[in-house]
Design brief:
The complex is a heterodimer of chains A (393) and B (89). By secondary structure, chain A is α/β, with parallel strands linked by helices. In chain A, 21% of the residues lie in helices and 25% in strands. Chain A contains 9 helices and 19 strands. In chain A, the strands form 5 sheets. Chain A has a 6-stranded mixed beta sheet with strand order 11-10-9-14-13-12. Chain A folds into 3 domains: 158 residues, Roll (Ubiquitin-like (UB roll)), CATH 3.10.20.440; 103 residues, FAD/NAD(P)-binding domain (3-Layer(bba) Sandwich); 110 residues, no CATH class. In chain A, helix 4 crosses helix 5 and helix 6 packs parallel to helix 7. In chain A, strand 17, helix 7 and strand 18 form a beta-alpha-beta unit. Chain B is mostly beta strands and 89 residues long. Chain B has one domain: Folate-binding superfamily (Folate-binding fold), CATH 3.30.2270. The termini of chain B are far apart. The chains are: A alpha/beta (393), B mainly beta (89). Chains A and B meet through loops of A and loops of B.
């Protein structure tokens, strides 16, 4: 992973360098980076450990749709747990550590737990240690080795003021659909507020490009909404209560928004393809690769394999190629016309069987022989019966 | 927080209001039997449905009637008491 030359429309300000530490090592990022993107730009592939087996986890969605990148942020003794690194902006002097490790992220002493995964089924500790005499002891042990961040009891009190706001139409989500809704409401003379989780509006219109410039129509909507609507970026709508009462959580305060109508335009969740080891660093959703390219000018890898079950995969492949990433293969799971239903699954099986990557050999594609390869996945419509995991097992 | 529309002051948060129960016809205390009077004093109809209720807007001191659908959790309308015959208890 490396930073690319400047890209038009990127979210980072290369003039302002921010220094931060991650797991005790110093790194540099740019203003506008999120914690995750700054780490990726520095070539840090492992961002966290899974909460039970402590498997290594890298970027998956880069959209706060996964919990791979949760951080403990702050000076020792007064840290904030479970900071969402995918969407939290980097600050100068930030001290960041991965949550739920024992002895650091790289050499987590608890990573051996994975070897015993067959003996630790879901609910195992509740069933095996439910005796009253045993549970208090084991509860402490399990609390320490599983879960997410730890709470610092000495952390200074953070004041989170509340504000009240009112609008006619509240749009949740600043992607193309949200922008269109907001623009239409503005057109009708309504007072509009728009909430976007990321640092800037635009959503997929600005990263899922297919090597083309952003849609001019969407850019016009964006300019109009920015100028005339009340914009909450880096914020999320935390609930939806009676009579359109929506609390908006911004980084510094909460807004109790009373709307007369609410438009939910939160977009689609890209579904990961199901196959063994699809959680390892290096395997990510295609939209994550597109996000890091377009927003933070980071190449996710040198060579990529795109696994897809719909046309969006080709859009991602074009984006990767346009930024100098070699697209070694596009594996399309859809059956070609007239083929037997098992054909795409067999392709996949073959493709996944023979990479030389450590542990990725079962998970990646024959074409990506380089150890720094990636399978970008885009499988929103992937039928599970044809998923690679089913095919390989 | 829910909103309730006061006929005088418009939509206000429900915390500004006070609920005084369902509108019920009072039997004539002179003529009612003991059972009728006891039922009026002690029994309430809890069945869900459309209810006519007394509400009071505390800051401005307005008594009014709200018609509320307790199945759909919706306020159908609110109006000042117009002396119309009360709902049957």
């Amino acid at each position: 992973m490396k930073r690319l030359p400047p890209i038009p429309g990127e979210w980072i300000d290369r003039g302002r360098v921010l220094r931060f530490t991650f797991e005790g090592r110093g790194y540099e990022g740019f203003a506008g980076d999120t914690i995750t993107s700054a780490l990726l730009a520095n070539g840090v592939p492992v961002l966290g450990r899974s909460f039970k087996y402590h498997r290594p986890r890298g970027v998956l969605s880069l959209a706060n749709h996964d919990v791979n990148a949760m951080m403990q942020v702050g000076q020792a003794g007064s840290t904030v747990p479970n900071v969402r690194a995918d969407v939290t902006l980097l600050e100068d002097g930030m001290i960041v550590e991965a949550v739920n490790t024992s002895g650091g992220l790289a050499s987590d002493r608890l990573r051996f737990l994975e070897w015993f995964s067959a003996f630790l089924p879901v609910g195992f500790y509740y069933k095996a240690f439910h005796k009253k005499s045993q549970f208090p002891f084991w509860e402490k042990v399990f609390r320490r080795i599983t879960g997410l961040g730890r709470i610092d009891l000495n952390a200074p009190r953070r004041t989170t003021p509340k504000r009240y706001a009112f609008c006619d139409v509240l749009v949740i989500g600043g992607g193309p659909a949200g922008l269109a809704a907001a623009a239409a409401a503005l057109e009708a003379g309504a007072r509009v507020a728009i909430v976007e989780e990321n640092a800037q509006l635009g959503g997929s219109a600005l990263f899922s490009l297919g090597a083309a410039p952003p849609n001019a129509e969407v850019l016009a909507l964006l300019a109009k909404v920015k100028e005339r609507a009340e914009v909450y970026t880096a914020s999320y709508a935390a609930g939806y209560y009676a009579d359109h009462w929506v609390p908006i959580v911004t980084p510094d305060y909460i807004v109790k928004m009373r709307a007369r109508a609410v438009v939910v335009a939160t977009g689609a969740y890209e579904q990961p393809a199901v196959f063994r080891n699809n959680d390892l660093p290096g395997v990510m959703l295609a939209s994550a690769a597109q996000r890091m390219l377009a927003r933070h000018a980071i190449a996710p890898c040198r060579r990529a394999v795109v696994l897809t079950a719909n046309d969006n995969g080709y859009c991602a492949a074009r984006d990767l190629a346009a930024h100098g990433v070699e697209v070694a293969a596009v594996v399309d799971l859809r059956a070609p016309a007239g083929a037997l239903p098992s054909t795409p699954a067999r392709w996949c099986c073959k493709a996944m069987a023979c990479t030389r990557h450590w542990r990725m050999r079962r998970a990646c594609c024959a074409a990506c022989a380089s150890p720094r390869s990636m399978a970008a996945m885009n499988s929103t419509t992937l039928p599970y019966a044809r998923s690679p995991a089913t095919a390989c097992s | 927080m829910k909103l309730l529309t006061c006929p005088i002051n418009g939509p206000r948060p429900v915390s500004e209001f006070f609920y005084w129960g369902e509108m019920r016809a009072m039997p004539d205390p002179e003529k009612a039997s003991d059972d009728e009077w006891a039922a009026y004093v002690f029994n309430r109809n809890g069945a869900p449905g459309i209810k006519r209720e007394w509400w009071y807007h505390l800051p401005s001191g307005v008594w009014f009637v709200a018609e509320r659908d307790t199945i759909a959790d919706k306020v159908l309308r609110t109006y000042l008491y117009d002396g119309a015959p009360e709902a049957q208890a």
